[in-house]
């Protein structure tokens, strides 16, 4: 119990720090800007953010949501991204515990938050984030499978990646975005590593969530049938739904068949 609590505290604090960095990624990557230079600064007056104001969540609260120099408003999305990343990291830590695969799924969580918000902002899933994530996934998961004597997990992940790529490539003929096609194999690899039930649930949940949100937007007249809606956030949400729920859902379904 003590070890679990320690892990959750560690990943929670890590999530706050990573969330602070993700705010930089979400703002700068679509603009083609460097993630390193210049340092954190107010986009209105250009003055650098003081170190004491750069503390995740607390800095925004201390400033009451305004720049310390020009008093321009600072979006509440900044602390929400930081707190949301910490919460997702804690959930992933609860799911995987002290395991070698934990870093891989924490990385996926960070990527999911960044890509979801960028896609909502600019309707793009930048190659600058998606493509390097393939190398990171391979570097973090393949050694784990080989060390555990389970190369089948890697093979299953590769097959799932290929299947989802083909599926999304076909859908792209009817207008699905190229970024979604590039993201699909990455999610397939992560879900395939967990098992076929995760692949099935993750793929299905993406369309279910997207359809539900689309229906609500249409009902509220916030969108029309011609409105472009980014699909990346639903792919990523579906993948994490599978990460957390695939095992109990597949167990429930198996029991249902046996009744």
UniProtKB/TrEMBL annotation:
It is found in: Cell membrane. Residues 107-214 form the Prepilin type IV endopeptidase peptidase domain. One of its GO terms (molecular function) is aspartic-type endopeptidase activity. The chain crosses the membrane at residues 6-27, 104-123, 129-148, 155-176, 196-220, 232-253. One of its GO terms (biological process) is signal peptide processing. It comes from the Bacteria. GO terms for cellular component: plasma membrane. Keywords: Cell membrane, Membrane, Transmembrane, Transmembrane helix. Residues 13-96 form the Prepilin peptidase A24 N-terminal domain. It is a multi-pass membrane protein. Belongs to the peptidase A24 family. This is Putative prepilin peptidase. It comes from Actinoplanes missouriensis (strain ATCC 14538 / DSM 43046 / CBS 188.64 / JCM 3121 / NBRC 102363 / NCIMB 12654 / NRRL B-3342 / UNCC 431).
């Amino acid at each position: 119990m003590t070890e679990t609590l320690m892990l959750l505290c560690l990943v929670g604090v890590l999530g706050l720090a990573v969330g602070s960095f993700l705010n930089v990624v979400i703002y700068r990557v679509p603009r083609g800007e460097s993630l390193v230079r210049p340092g954190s600064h107010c986009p209105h007056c250009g003055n650098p953010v003081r170190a004491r104001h750069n503390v995740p969540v607390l800095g925004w609260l201390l400033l009451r949501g305004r720049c310390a120099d020009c008093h321009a408003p600072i979006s509440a999305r900044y602390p929400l991204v930081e707190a949301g990343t910490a919460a997702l990291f804690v959930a992933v830590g609860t799911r995987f515990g002290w395991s070698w695969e934990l870093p891989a799924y924490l990385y996926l969580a960070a990527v999911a938050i960044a890509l979801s918000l960028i896609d909502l902002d600019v309707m793009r899933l930048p190659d600058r984030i998606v493509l390097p994530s393939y190398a990171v996934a391979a570097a973090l998961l393949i050694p784990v499978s080989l060390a555990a004597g389970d190369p089948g997990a890697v093979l299953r992940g590769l097959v799932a990646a290929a299947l989802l790529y083909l599926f999304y490539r076909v859908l792209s003929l009817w207008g699905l975005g190229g970024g979604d096609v590039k993201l699909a194999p990455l999610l397939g690899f992560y879900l395939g590593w967990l098992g076929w039930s995760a692949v099935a649930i993750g793929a299905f949940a993406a369309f279910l969530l997207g359809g539900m949100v689309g229906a609500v937007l249409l009902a509220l007249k916030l969108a029309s049938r011609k409105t472009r809606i980014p699909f990346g956030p639903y792919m990523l949400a579906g993948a994490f739904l599978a990460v957390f729920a695939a095992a109990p859902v597949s167990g429930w379904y198996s029991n249902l068949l046996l009744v």
